[in-house]
Amino acid sequence: MPLALFGGVRPSSRAGAVRDAWAGVTLASMNVPQVLGYARIAGMPVVTGLYTVLLPPVLFAIFGSSRHLVVAADSATAAIFSAALAQMAAPGSSEYVALAQTVALLTAGLLLLARLFRLGFLADFLSRTVLVGFLTGVGVQVGIAMLGDMLGEAVSAHATPAQAWEVARDLSQVHVPTLLLSAVVVAGILFGRRFAPRLPVSLLAVAATIAASAAFGFAGHGIATIGAVAGGVPAIGLPKVTWNQTLALLPIAASCLVVIVAQSAATSRAFAARAREEVDEDADLLGLAAANAAAGISGAFVVNGSPTQTAMAERAGGHSQITQLAFAVMALLVLLLLTWPLQFLPRCVLAAIVFTIATGMLDLKALRDIRRESPGEYRLALATATAVVVLGIELGVLLAVTLSLLRHVRHSYHPRNMVLTEDAAGRWVPTPAAPGMQTEPGLLIYHFAADLFYANINRFAEEVRTLTASAPAPVRWFIVEAGAIADIDYSAASALRDLLDELAARGIRVAFARVSPDLRADMDRHRITPAIGAARMFSTLHEAVAAARAAMVRDDSGRASSLPCA
Questions:
Q1: How confident is residue 126, by pLDDT bands cut at 50, 70 and 90?
Q2: Each residue's pLDDT tens digit, 143-195
Q3: Best label site of 50, 202, 284, 379, fewest CB within 10 Å?
Q4: Residue 366: Cβ within 10 Å count
Q5: Contacts of 486 (CB under 8 A, 6+ apart)
Q6: Domains in the chain: how many in total?
Q7: 305 in the same domain as 180
Q8: Range of the domain at 492
Q9: What's the burial of 308, exposed, middle or buried (CB within 10 Å: 0-12/13-18/19+)?
Q10: Which residues fall within 8 angstroms of residue 511, CB to CB, at 6 or more apart?
Q11: Is 67 helix (H, G, I), strand (E, B) or coil?
Q12: β-strand pairing of 443-447 with 509-513
């Protein structure tokens, strides 16, 4: 497939470009405080949050396909690598920054491999249910991590449970002015989010507290500030890390890859569907790879397709990647002209902004919907959230993927199988398969609701044995209604041939109904067709039932004619 550049920009009219550019200015007014907050989550210098919206969105606009996806710093990926890197270097140090850059470059490499092998479909393996639980857990973790700065307490622990314990233990040391300022900022942002979502409340809070801090000397009154912020454009270059450090960072990059693929794909799909547009997930993988490479060489950290920032761009009126390009221009202006005032920004204000971001990740409505519609999936979401909070982000990511796959495999391993019976009107009625059930005397029709493979063939065979042994009348014909079976693997085929021999020895004839061409090809290849008999392979259930009934009538007539006359 030829490489298509600027897929998220084209087509565009002059009026549309002006509208999207203004939306980028609006997005910057709302989002600059957030990317500073994401840098805080990442343990990086505050200015690197601006770096994430400088070159990365430009590269995604060139190589990506989504017109809507905003690629920048993201709380989920920031939390993933910061939790691990904090064990390797002091957050904010030059060594830590180099490690974070390396994670971005490794993530870019993995994303490029995913694009080369067209692995965009892997996003489908992280279910919406588990993703909700994962993001909820990240929200709780990030919120707890911010409590120390919001209360004016010194927290040294890295694990979330230990951080919560330190905060609770040292409540007597809370700095009241810091707490009050944090509470005002949180209340203002949440109020604005609820009643004035287009108003850049976070930006107003940052501007107002910077002015107040500079005028009244907050630092001299015990309210900590973030200190000097380096201005100007970032230096371009590769980070200096050792080979052993690079190898140690690979699992962290892999965790970021999983979240980026799942979250970006889900976000781009959702917004493309709203606009009735197509999206090329593999092209987006290339765009995300280029964006992370740009982040890695420009002193930034991992970037991701952000659902919250994408929603903000849509609310601002953006309909193409021109919005992101305009946002990048605004970030450049801030870096060149407005970094000096940032030194007066209170740390608690930045923490309060991040705290409100964390609360936005708690999708309680989605959790309530999941609980109402599927209690089992709700338990999976809670298990994932708990694992993220208690065990950490990396293990939470692995658990999220594992639970998603296990949920899929469980449905295939233990499908809802049915026995079909005929009602008075001649319609087939499915009833959950259970011992003692039978379609009619001599006949049992069994619907297996999944492909046959190595993990579920033993369950299939055991259920067939149980149904045939417990039937009220001896089973003479056993029909497998195979409409849901599209594939049989080698292990399942071998076990199925053994089962057919066993049933034949018991005098039970087996037929398959609703056999698709693909299934028939598998059965031919695995020598199942000759074991059953080609005459007992039917494309419809009606044909199979008619053949079985006719055979039973012939058998009964033959037995009756062979009886001696009185």
A1: low
A2: 898 899 999 998 877 778 988 999 999 999 999 999 999 999 999 999 998 88
A3: 379
A4: 17
A5: 451, 516, 518, 519
A6: 2
A7: yes
A8: 418-560
A9: middle
A10: 477, 478, 479, 480, 532, 536, 537, 538, 544, 547, 548
A11: coil
A12: unpaired
